[in-house]
Amino acid sequence: MEHVYDDAAAAESAAESLQSVLDGARMAQTPAVPPAQLRVLTIIARAADTNMSRLAETLDVVPSSASRLCDRLEATGLLRRVPDPRDRREVRLLLTPAARRLLHDLRESRRRALAGVLSRMSPAARHDLVRALTAFDVAANPVVGEGGAGLRTA
Questions:
Q1: CA distance 47 to 41
Q2: CATH of the domain at 100
């Protein structure tokens, strides 16, 4: 058990370094979007049929908190609320073209920042890292009946 605990400590340290690189790329982004709002945009980008109740559930917040986040995003032109064509009582959340550009630009900025760090590693070490991260992703996100999930890109 001690060995797994030591591995967990090493993984935590590496994850903090990774998060630092990703946060640096996010903070350099213009316009700057707070992390909570960025999370909302990412959730909506991944699930086109997101409505307010599904968003609140995914964020694990009360609907009024999710609504306030959406108010801010709508005010900055990154989000639109439209009636759901299947149920007019529901409101569907849609990204604007500006939000899609922002997410694309952020993804590119993060990848450039990561590439800068990865370029200081040997090809073999990079290969081992990707293999280990893929295995971690599968272990952290098991998919019943499919043997696992791949790395996500948002």
A1: 10
A2: 1.10.10.10
